[in-house]
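Example record

The entry below shows one chain as it appears in the dataset: sequence first, then structure tokens.
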Amino acid sequence: MKLFYCLSPPCVRNRFDRVSLLLGLIFSSAIHFTNGQGLETAAGARAAAIGGAAVTMYDDYAWGNNPAGAATIVSASVNSSFKNRFSLKSMNSMMFQASVPFRRIVAGITLQKYGDQYYSEQKAGLGVASKIANVSLGTQVHLLQIGMDEVPTQWSWIGEFGGIAQLGKYVTWGAHIWNFNLATVNTRQKIELPVVLRTGISYKPIAKVMANLQLTKNISHKPSIAAGVEYRMLELLALRTGVTTQPFSANFGAGVQHRKLKVDYALSAHEWLGLSHQFSVAIVFSKREKANP
């Protein structure tokens, strides 16, 4: 979610500002095309390693991918993730999530931060999810803060909604919409934030293998396709890989789970800008979780 401010006075005051802003927009555009929007990247290294094809996944990071995926959480949990894009400190992002189940409803909070003192995005979200029969539904509301050097801080409310349905013994379908309320940001002119639609399927022929395929459509850009595979070779160890189009990126990763602790790592190779690293840690306050249906 990057805002395209004007490149001439009075939006920027001198030539240096215009050059800096233009460079920032170039990098922002690359991330925008890859992930759909700024902070709404694949939440957690598990999702990043399979190319972001996570709209069908039930796990601890669901509040950042599809809130419906949090509906099967039966124990309180917290998780944190850190991502370094292209070895640029100004593009680092951090995320914290917490989930608490209440009978048939799971509540969650999400905190995210991206950027530096010159351009930053911060987001706080509250969400709920529930499962009815073979269908899970979830929604979340975010308060987004956008800060930019010499530009007043801007605020906006953003809503998202998602669902996941079990279509058979091996197939799961998911759908998600980001910014269904058509939120805007008022700078010197009104800027519409992007609406992003995602849908996908997950095929799990055996317990150790999961294959995901996802279509993402930002209404302002061409659709992007993501595909990924997870192979749980041991009860403790999982290996992952995936690809994303528009633009192309190759992704790899691994995860280790031991009792209450889950640790994941992802490496993404962008066709234009190079490597990104993501590291995630989750703690579940119970030894057991509800199985992925």
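Notes for this example: Residues 85 and 170 are 35 Å apart (CA to CA). The first helix runs from residue 15 to 35.
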